[in-house]
Amino acid sequence: MTNLISAEGLKKMCDEYDYLWKVERPKVVQGVSDAAAEGDRSENAEYIYGKKRLREIDRKLKHLGSRLKVLKVATVPAHPNQVTFGCWVTYEEDSGEERCYQLVGPDEIDVSVGRISMDSPVGQALLHKKVDDEVTVRKPGGEITLYITGISSLRPK
User: Fold this and answer.
1) What DSSP string runs through 37-104?
2) Domains of the chain and any CATH numbers
3) Which pTM value belongs to this model?
4) How confident is the model at residue 89 (pLDDT cuts 50, 70, 90)?
5) Continuous segment of H or E residues that includes residue 138
6) What is d(CA 111, CA 64) in angstroms, rounded to the nearest whole number?
7) Cα angle: 100, vertex 103, 106; to 5 degrees
């Protein structure tokens, strides 16, 4: 798994960690404490749900904490001549359909805004390629060929 992240992605992860640790967890701990004070815990839905939520928060904090220890902030070259971390890559598929994605680490994946993992089959195939290169990607449904039409440090309009 790639341990690269953008400065923006790192800030977002740190903010989530801080929110869970300083706001959400204390609120849930207080709710569990209040529910426990009401008596019989075995039939107390608030107590049971609170304990479950507390385990979820602790699991998320552990995951975020371990990732934050190993992540390294990577910068995108201002004028990239090949596909690297953080670059926006525009390519055309066999079908003629054009797509544009930013290659990011696993902690920033969000396909709905065009961010795919550089560890994914498409990401791996695109890494270190240049404009006008043809790339073959092995997918579960078979192979597809991509033709790189653009590489940029900024999202194309």
Assistant:
1) HTS-STT-HHHHHHHHHHHHHHHHHHHHHHHHHH-EE----SS-SS--TT-EEEEEETTS-EEEEEEE
2) 4-73 (1.10.287.180), 88-152 (3.10.50.30)
3) 0.81
4) very high
5) strand 134-139
6) 21
7) 130
